[in-house]
Specification:
By secondary structure, this protein is α+β, with helices and mostly antiparallel strands. The protein has four helices and seven strands, in the order E-H-H-E-E-E-H-E-H-E-E. Strand 6 and strand 7 form a beta hairpin. The model has no long low-confidence stretch (mean pLDDT 96).
Length: 163
């Protein structure tokens, strides 16, 4: 597996799993009605302060993607944030771990002081455990801030990792 910067042509490979994940409404607070163009604009950031990556296999198939950026502008811009999506067919193969480790490395090289994930769905226990294994700590939970079709109202964790 290789992690590389995403290019515009990668969106066609990202869109199917992006749409599947977002419409499932289990792990992201994105609007499930996002169009192809709205989702592309959201995920494939053009900001010089942001970065979008893809994880690809030996044949060049996109397995997952990440986008990363300053968590807040101005005086909060020294804290990074990110979002990650992995194609269902590639889950359990270390794709999310590789994307997150690449993001941690990027944030360190880019001069960020820490990383904050603002909205990790409490019932997404696989992601919570992975982020904790990579050094993130739950620093707070907003109770019942997310409505999961499977679990009802669940909390959104704020997770933090110093660099």
């Amino acid at each position: 597996m290789e992690i590389r910067e995403a290019v515009a042509a990668d969106w066609d490979a990202i869109w199917p799993f992006f749409r599947e994940i977002v419409t499932a409404s289990e792990t992201f607070t994105y609007d499930p009605e996002l169009t192809f163009e709205q989702a592309r604009s959201l995920w494939m950031s053009a900001s010089p302060l942001a970065r979008t990556t893809v994880a690809i296999d030996a044949e060049g198939k996109v397995l997952g993607s990440a986008n990363m950026y300053p968590n807040r502008p101005g005086p909060g811009a020294h804290v990074a944030s990110a979002s990650f999506m992995v194609d269902a067919a590639a889950r359990g193969q270390g794709v999310g771990r590789a994307l997150c480790q690449d993001m941690i490395d990027w944030a360190g090289r880019s001069g960020f002081r820490s990383i904050q994930f603002n909205a990790v769905v409490e019932s997404n226990t696989t992601a919570v455990k992975l982020w904790q294994a990579l050094g993130f700590e739950i620093i707070g939970t907003v109770p019942e801030a997310f409505l999961s079709p499977s679990h009802g109202y669940v909390g959104l964790h704020v997770m933090h990792r110093p660099l």
